[in-house]
Amino acid sequence: MAEYERVLLVKPEVFVYKIPPRQSNRGYKAADWSLQAPDWTGRLRVVTRQQLCYIKLEDKSGELFAQCPIDAYPGVAVEPVMDSSRYFVIRIQDESGRNAFIGVGFADRSDSFDLNVSLQDHFKSEQKSVELEQQQQQPALDLAFKEGQTISINIGNKPKMARPKPAGSSGGIGMLPPPPGSKIPTLAPPPSSLNPVRGRGSPVRVPAAQSGPISSTNTQPSSTVNCFLDLEFGGPPAATNVPAATAVSAVPETIDWLQF
Fold first, then answer.
1. Which of 47, 81, 112, 182 has the fewest CB atoms within 10 Å, measured from its CB?
2. Would you kindly state where each structural domain of the chain is located, as residue ranges?
3. What is the CATH number of domain 6-130?
4. What is the pLDDT of residues 146-198, one digit of tens each?
5. What are the CA-CA distances from residue 84 to residues 73, 89, 90, 248 (Å)?
6. 152-191: b or e for each residue (b if 16 or more CB lie within 10 Å)?
7. Is the dihedral of CA 80, 84, 85, 88 positive or negative?
8. Rounded mean pLDDT of 203-219?
9. Which CDD domains does this UniProt record tie to the protein (predicted)?
């Protein structure tokens, strides 16, 4: 079965350099290379094959010059130099499995940026795929109720909140203020010793009743009625045979003033 390659990046021009051995563990420097005289010039392709990623260096005819298998990025297979963003050190491998380190670089910084982004995106997607497979392999949690299984829920009583007391109350039941717009009725003043009758200007004094028993033969209702009419309309007293003192005495002692 033929193996298919997926192309991630193609750069038509790349420079290859022979590099001296590393002098320290700090990293490589492009200034130590002969940057003006590259040892080989060709094109660069980043491809994937069966979850493996490769950097392939090919000439203009498409013949393979060298390839770099990448198992992680950043890692030992592809390492940026310390003094430039346009150059890298890659680990190439031949068919027999022997490894060698060479330097590669680009004339434009955007080409080196594209190489970084393509490698980072590839390994991020591979990491997500691995995590997804691990989740699918884990047994699913069975949260369903078993036969005869029950649960109980204890709902506590909610605490009763105290109702706020009206301002100014000192306990007990207070009186509510009248609603807005209502009128408070005005109470009439208590009767005084002097009170005009029906708006007349001069008060009428009723003499106190005489002491002693009142004879039933001398008391006539008509005299009392005439006395009331005289006070109301101010007309002359009606003629009667009953003395004035006896007629006045028929008025109860508790009435000092008459008011209609």
1. 182
2. 6-130, 202-253
3. 2.30.29.30
4. 788 888 887 776 666 666 665 555 555 556 666 776 566 666 666 655 444 44
5. 18, 12, 15, 137
6. eeeeeeeeeeeeeeeeeeeeeeeeeeeeeeeeeeeeeeee
7. negative
8. 48
9. PHear_NECAP (cd13228)
